[in-house]
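Note on ligand handling. Small-molecule inputs were canonicalized before submission; formal charges were left as drawn, and no protonation-state enumeration was performed. Where a ligand contained multiple stereocentres, the stereochemistry in the source SMILES was retained. For adenosine-5'-diphosphate, this procedure yielded the string shown in the input block below.
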Amino acid sequence: MKVITVENLTYYYPGSTKPALKNVSMEIERGDFIIITGPSGSGKSTLIRTFNGLIPHFYKGRFEGRVLVFGVDTRKASVAELSRKVGMVFQDPENQILTLSVEREIAFGLENLGLNPKEIRRRVNESLRSLRIEHLRYRVPFELSIGEQQKVVVAAVLAMKPEVLVFDEPTAHMDPLSALMFAEILGELNKQGYTIIVVEHRLDLLVKYANRMVVLKDGKIVKIGYPLEVLAEEDIENAGINVPKYITLFKKLRSYVSIATIPKSTDEASKMLREIAYGNSNRG
Ligand SMILES: Nc1ncnc2c1ncn2[C@@H]1O[C@H](COP(=O)(O)OP(=O)(O)O)[C@@H](O)[C@H]1O
Ligand SMILES: [Mg+2]
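Structure output:
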C-alpha cells in the first residue's frame, strides 16, 4: 500500500526564481524505512515539508505536480489532518517543546485529541518506554540535553500514533553513542510497523535498517534505490554525500579479491575482512 506518492513535483519558495524541488517523483510504501540524503541546500527539508502539507499550506509559493498522502491530495487536506497520519520531528527540538515536564509534553497532544485520561496515561507510558526515557518522566524538557529533548519530541509524536514518522537530521545534535542508540530505536519502530522517513547525513548509522535511499542534488533526485546498491555505484562518491568509509574500502577491495556483497554494517565489514585474511593465509 502506498502511504505517500509524489508526482512530478516542482516547488518554488515565494519570491524565489530557482526551484527548491525539480520534477520529483517517488513512492513510499507502508513499512518502508527511507533515508533521504544529499548535500546541504539540495532540498531534503523542503521535500519532507510536502509530506504533511506544510508545503503548500504554510510556505505557499509555486507548487506544481501533486503529493498524495494515503491517496489524498495534500492540497485538499489540512496540515492538522495530515499530521495525524504523518508525524514530523523537525531539526531543532527546542522549537517543538511546549510544556514544563516530559510527561506533560507527551500528554499535551493527546489531551487535544480528546482522549480519556486512562488512554493518555497508557500512551505516555508506552512512548516513554519505546524511547527508553522513563527516567526523564518528571524532568523539565528545557533543562535536558538536546539529544534527550529530541527523544522527548519523538515520544510526543509517537504517542499520537501516526502511521508515518518523518525525521529531519535527528542525530545532528547527538554524540556518536546517542546517535547509534537513536538509530537502533528507529530500527525498532520500523519493525513495529511504522513507516520511517529520515533525512540524514550519517549514513553509516542507518544503512542496515533502511530498505530505500533517495539522494537529492539541486532539488532533483539523482539516485533512488536499495541503500547498499546505491552506495555500491562507482560514481556515488561524487554525489556530495557521506558514503560510509567501510563501503568505500570494500569497493576498492573488490578489484583485488572477489567480494560477493558490500557489508551492511561495520560489524559485518570486520567479519568479512577476517574471512578474507584467513582465506588468503589458508591458501598460502
Ligand atoms: N523558508 C525558505 N524560504 C526560501 N527559500 C528556502 C527556504 N527554505 C529553504 N530554502 C531554499 O530551498 C533550497 C533547499 O533548501 P532545503 O530544503 O532547506 O535543503 P536541505 O534541507 O537539503 O539542506 C535551498 O536553496 C534553500 O536556500
Ligand atoms: Mg535541511
